[in-house]
Specification:
The protein has about 120 residues and is α+β, with helices and mostly antiparallel strands. It has a single domain, classed as Alpha-Beta Plaits (2-Layer Sandwich). Helix content is about 35%, strand content about 25%. It is globular and about 40 Å long. It starts with a strand and ends in a 5-residue tail after the last strand.
Length: about 120
């Protein structure tokens, strides 16, 4: 079974195209190093729950939408190798240095997951 890094983040609605531009570049880099799949999704039918919800999880503001993303790898070992290489890639370093990521990283969360089921 494969390994997945999952991400949930708030993106200002008026910066969604800018986010998508940076996500496309990042996806190319991850895939060049061996990621099997990179998926970016934007909230479409997501309610603001009373106790828990995607918007609450990232403290989404009125002018923000929630993005759910994942990167799939062949294994945890491959993920660790790929992420190490990606973080040293000049394209990613430049985006980080230039502050081109239009997201409040303090409200973003992520983690690695072992796949349980794929049908």
């Amino acid at each position: 079974m494969s390994y997945v890094d999952g991400f949930v983040l708030p993106v200002p609605t008026d910066k969604l195209e800018e986010y998508l531009r940076t996500a496309r570049i990042a996806a190319e880099v991850w895939k060049e190093y061996g990621a099997l799949e990179v998926v970016e999704t934007v909230a479409d039918d997501v309610k603001h729950g009373e106790q828990t919800s995607f918007p609450r999880s990232v403290q989404a503001r009125e002018n923000e939408t929630v993005v759910l993303s994942w990167i799939r790898y062949a294994s945890r070992e491959e993920r660790d190798r790929i992420n190490e290489a990606v973080l040293k890639d000049p394209r990613i370093e430049e985006m980080m240095r230039a502050g081109e990521f239009p997201v409040d990283g303090k409200r973003m969360f992520w983690g690695g997951f072992t796949e349980l089921l794929r049908q």
